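subagent[fold] <- orchestrator: predict structure for attached chain, return tokens only, no commentary.
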Amino acid sequence: MNEEKGDKSDIPTNSQKLNQVKGATVPEYKKEIVKELVEKIKSHETLLLVSTKGLPSSQYQKIKKGLRGKADVLIAKKSLITRAIDMIEKGALQNLKKEIGANVALFFSNIDAFELSGLLSENQSSAKAKAGDIAPEDIKVEPGLTELIPGPAISELSNVGLKVAVENGKLAIKQGATIVKEGEEINENVAGVMAKLNIEPMKVGFIPLAAYDAKEDKVYVGIKIDKEAALEELREAIGKGFGFAVGVNYTTTETVNFFISKAGLEAKALESLSPKEETPKSEEETKESLEKEDSEEVKTEEKKEEVKEDIQNSGKEEAN
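subagent[fold] -> orchestrator:
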């Protein structure tokens, strides 16, 4: 048996949705936050969801100020962001809800999502490591004089693999070492040593999580942009592509100079292996050459006559 379809009037409006929170009335300030979120989502091409975990207030204000005119920033609870998204009837936007966690903020902008993510990466600053942090790279301590005085610091530095000595009343690191490798968890001892040596290996800032592109009606995840790493990967890819193109003799504007240079070198190599042909002499050069040969022949005959005459004179002298 078919069930009767409910009247469309039974469907709750956005205003009713806003008031339905576990049967309780939503406080006015929360309504205002949701309303502002809805307006900003509708009026911007890019919505970027970021993590604010571990971000100091001072850094938040600095980044917010640096992006003034490029993006608006708003921090709100997960429940309010989710409710605002529910109130906007866009298919792909709903996929952003599963990326929302604790300690998040929203960036509203008309800048491309990937460009905006790159700007956030550039606005990160260095920070000291805490126990439990994951090392972003190999952290190595170089030899040199420190500002630490002898005492407990000697054993603390030694415990993480550093060889130290006392010089002029201060501790000097005589032999450096890698105290934690990339991807490893930083323990309390290592974090303490780095703090004493003013080593700040961590980066703090907004960490992009996902973005919604209103033009394309698409959600992008894993949108964190590392420009330096991306450029290095691009250089490596270009190098491999160039090598492949050369290997298969594929001519492009990038490889043609290489092929021309290669052809020139091969031509020179073949030329060095081929017998050299004498350049034909002109009539004047031939005449001069023949005259020179005749002159040399005359001189040779004269020399022979002189030698013959000398021999004859020597024989006469001996007979006498």
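orchestrator: received. Logging for downstream: The CA atoms of residues 48 and 278 lie 78 Å apart. The chain has ten helices and twelve strands.
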